[in-house]
């Protein structure tokens, strides 16, 4: 009887080159589909955040403006940042209507941001916002569609915003 030599059986412990290439190709296709979608989601979230900031700045500015003019908001305490920034923004409790109006008009966007607690968050991006001269509403510049917009700066006063 003739004996044939049996080859030792090789155990498969791994993937072939073809299998690895197929997996890499599939991952590449998935990445090509997913990355633009994720980037779009991130951009939409950033835009929404900026629009929310613009709305918050507008609300804070209008509330502060009306509060000072009506006498409901006074900046007399030493810890008050508005007094420390601009003495014209001081409106004592016994101020006349005219004095309150002057004080309200003198408040700057910088002071509004501090009042609203947004200063550290927005101070470097304040140039990304515009205000509509007709109604004083603040918008993120990429989403503003009106024709009467002006860029805001830290020195823009509420008198300028509310003039419309």
User: How many H/I helices?
Assistant: 6
The protein's oligomeric status is single chain
Strand content: 5-15%
Radius of gyration: 31 Å
Overview of this structure, please?
The chain is mainly α. The protein has one domain. 52% of the residues lie in helices and 6% in strands. It has six helices and three strands. It has a three-stranded antiparallel beta sheet with strand order 2-1-3. The radius of gyration is 31 Å and the shape is rod-shaped.
In brief:
The chain is mainly alpha-helical and 164 residues long.
Features:
164 residues, mainly alpha, 6 helices, 52% helix
SSE map:
Elements lengths: L16 H54 L10 H5 L11 H10 L2 H8 L2 H4 L6 E4 L5 E3 L8 E3 L6 H4 L3
Antiparallel strand pairs: 1-2, 1-3
